[in-house]
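Lab notebook page, bench 4
Experiment: in silico fold of construct C2
Operator: M.H.
Input chain length: 436 residues
Purpose: comparison with the prior construct
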Amino acid sequence: MKKGNGIALLPIGVFLVLYLGLGILFEYVLKIPMGFYNVPIVVAFLAAILVACVQNRKVNFDKKLELMAQGVGDKNIITMLLIFLTAGCFVGVVGRSSAESVAYFMLALIPARFSVAVLFVVACFVSVAMGTSVGTITLLTPIAVAVSAASGFDLPFCVGAVMGGAMFGDNLSFISDTTIAACNGQGCEMKDKFRENFWIAFPAAVITLALILILSFQTEIHGRVDQSYHLLQVLPYVLVLIGGIIGINVFVVLLTGIASGALIMLLGGHTTPTDLLANMGSGVSGMFETCMVAILVAAMCALIREYGGFDALLGWIHRIFKGKRGGQLGMGLLVGAMDIATANNTVAIVMANPIAKEMAQEYRVTPKKTASLLDTFSCIFQGVIPYGAQMLVAISAAHELGYEISAFQIMPRLFYPMFLLLCSLIAIFGVEKKQR
């Protein structure tokens, strides 16, 4: 192990100051809508890399370029990029009508008393199938508003159910940015991470559903939502979900979803070939920034590692967190802190990955467990911060439909992230106690 050098972590500090500082300025001082997401994250990372390149004059610039190239050229980084792009193509093919069909189908079958519970379950399924919490919230918040207006359920209650279900899938989905980043960063199979993660996320979801049902029976109901739907459009989601769970190669799974989705959309007359290609292009384009962030972080972390920054950080962590349990909690808090600073759980995982990998070796934590911890804790924090994309998108969607709602009205109704934190802590401390 190289001698630790705390100054080597300066590029991360520069990025956080730029991104978090400008985000707070835009969002809360200048009152710019979605202010955090108007900050050019790629530019912030470029500034951080510039600082890393200026540091450590003992290493010449050509050597620094070579180190960055080695970091970017890692097999896991390349795999991550290709999966990101293929997943974007899949989401572009299936479109929003497929997700809406799931919701309206279940709302048509189940009594109005269970509408909020249906919203939560549908959000869980759609987010697992689509792999995006923001996309799920964008699609289902208007339905949540309709449920609230038609049935009498409290609007924050309905929106909170959608947000909770969306974070469930963000954490578990095989095509979620966070799953892809965590698994490839730690070098583990997605199916192994899913099995490790499932027994944390599923109990939290069951408890959340039970609480939603209890609260639902305390509300007076006076209506229901009834809309048309196309059930066949759900098939690509189901195929991707089943393929991922049984362990088929992720590229094969995604290509199956793309092919089946394209056939259904074309043969059903839901789109034209040109529109389908345009949608695929839009889906891939939506992943470009995420891919660029992964590349820049890999390059920056290669330099920080070479300079001894990670060794210094590990030394500090060892002094604070003792034993295997402490190490796992330290990983969770590390990615949580990154998420609070960046308001982006995928970026938080990408940044935390190399540090967590070295922590896992030090504390003897398996890759699948490490990936599960990173994904879970990033989703816990991302699911509750009032300036996260998930919260802002939900508020904006309700506002566009003529309803005013604030983050602080929704936050007390975010039951799933709260129970997910509880189940995560039980998994860390309870399992370790059993092993003893």
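Observations: The two ends are 29 Å apart (CA to CA). Residues 432-436 have pLDDT under 50 and may be disordered.
Next step: discuss at group meeting.
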